[in-house]
Amino acid sequence: MDSVASHSYEVHLEALAQAALQQYIAKSSYSKIFLMVDENTKKYCLPIFEEKIGVQIDQILEIQSGEANKNITTCVKVWDALSKNDGDRKSLLINLGGGVLTDLGGFVASTFQRGIDFINIPTTLLAMVDASIGGKTGVDLGPLKNQIGVINQPKMVLIFPEFLKTLEPRQRTSGYAEMLKHGLIRDAVYWNSLRNTNDYGDAACVQKSISIKNDIVMQDPTEKGVRKILNFGHTLGHAIESYCLESPQRKTLLHGEAIAIGMILEAYLSHELKGLPRLSLEEIKDTFLKHFERVDFDGHDIDSILKLLRYDKKNSHGNINFVLLQAIGEAVIDVKVPDNLLLKAFAYYKE
Amino acid sequence: MDSVASHSYEVHLEALAQAALQQYIAKSSYSKIFLMVDENTKKYCLPIFEEKIGVQIDQILEIQSGEANKNITTCVKVWDALSKNDGDRKSLLINLGGGVLTDLGGFVASTFQRGIDFINIPTTLLAMVDASIGGKTGVDLGPLKNQIGVINQPKMVLIFPEFLKTLEPRQRTSGYAEMLKHGLIRDAVYWNSLRNTNDYGDAACVQKSISIKNDIVMQDPTEKGVRKILNFGHTLGHAIESYCLESPQRKTLLHGEAIAIGMILEAYLSHELKGLPRLSLEEIKDTFLKHFERVDFDGHDIDSILKLLRYDKKNSHGNINFVLLQAIGEAVIDVKVPDNLLLKAFAYYKE
Description:
2 copies of one chain form a homodimer.
Chain A: E1 4-5, E2 10-13, H1 14-27, E3 33-38, H2 39-44, H3 46-52, E4 59-63, H4 72-84, E5 92-97, H5 99-111, E6 117-122, H6 125-131, E7 139-141, E8 144-148, E9 156-159, H7 169-186, H8 188-195, H9 203-219, H10 234-246, H11 255-274, H12 278-291, H13 299-309, E10 321-327, E11 330-336, H14 339-350
Parallel strand pairs in A: 2-9, 3-4, 3-5, 5-6, 6-9
Antiparallel strand pairs in A: 1-2, 7-8, 10-11
Helix pairs in contact in A: 4-5, 5-6, 6-7, 6-9, 7-8, 7-9, 7-11, 10-11, 10-13, 11-12, 11-14
């Protein structure tokens, strides 16, 4: 399997990843190598890491898994642990986990002593195809997702599809949503093949998604323009995810589950405002509802979700900017949406 | 007074600063302009800012002054306040205060929604000649100074020597220590003129110090090499500052007061290890003791200070690297110092 080049870091898959990491560590002169895990990756992924990768780790740091722990309190614990274990500017942090862990680990590394090196080894499909690529790091501030963070690239991203075997089906499906998004915003052929396969976690699909995301990020690392298309489904998806996380009567959604809903809603907006054909809209809705159970939002839920939109970081000057589709494979950025259409989008999702 | 060019930001003094800020704001399209103050700069500097500078501020944010508040808890309060007042990616944060405020404000801005623009208006001599120049931002983690932060340049640094009139003498003297350091590490002529003047806060001296620091930072923005010379006096100075801050029986020292002691100690090490002439060593000690009262450290104090050294962020691989002087105006980096010499340096300081 080939490696994917990027501006300032490399993505390696499978056997190449193992060799690349070993060579990199051998030629570096890190003072200490820290490995961060959560209770799940410690149990299911660390043994694979130790057997397959065989890099000497000086200290393992453990955090609690889950979006609810992706916050500054957890960062303080990790900064403290790095300090107490003699972490210094020449230390390396390897993040072994899903998107919560790689986002938080990247932020902790980027800010510890004004920045130490880090490497991401994503263990979920979502983190492989999305979170660990592109240099966005950060944590949540109360209900506001990724409100605090920096853009900073890891030294390497290493992909071992073997870790996917450790995942529950629900976690795998969550990653599938982001992969389908890559097709929707950039590649209609990929969308078609992906929505008709059951084997979306194989190395070829993972690599295709990484390539699409990486191409977009390389064109616009700091998200001034084209990179925004990666936010398709996320403007409403983030608000839905935040709302369900905070709301006691709603089941917490995985990121992919929330943006799957967001993509149906924003596909409706695309049809209304940007001419996305009706047939494409139906195809998108059918595809996502086949894999993601419909959530029954009531009026109060929808009101609360729309209130959260105001705080979303993609907003500017109080306006809400959406990424919409003109066609499958063709996205447009910075589209303003009238309020009444948002309610109609939720009605369409319920139908 | 001239402006000082830099890689990615500009430093403007006096009348030029006022014009530069007004022009910059006029041609920008910020969604909201936030101004951060503490209780002191709100009282003494904000009226001058409003009268002199006349830029429309949308929201004033107030933090508590002092090193003890330069921490993540204060950052969370400011991040929350930015969020609640509709701060977004196109907001601007203007930091009006001393080094604690500009360091913290720079970090908060660099990490809010993965980075918004900020401008520093330092109000203390120390912040004018040191903290606000060079892009180092950050906060303390417990007793560990600047343990958490990033390197990120402000859009502008604006210097109004008029603010110095609002300072207590002790605060002015603290800034004087950093100015003397600029002479010691880079410019023997400046050192000589500066140690013989009582008017070190005038615009010409401030500008000379800014130029020296800026030249060094431009050569090495990320502190891989020459920039380290700015840490002369800081390896021991930081440990002394942290110790006195945490220790109930010791008076808290201002930053300049702590590094003045650090510079005497490290001048002694320079004499022992790098051939700094005895006469130069005496001249350095006499100059600092003329302005900075000697602190009477006992054996327990010294033990505790040396323990804190281990945690200092300039250390690597457990070794303690010092910046020392070969001569006044000539610094060398990455010098290892045997433990017994550290005790002798404290003995020399006591003599």
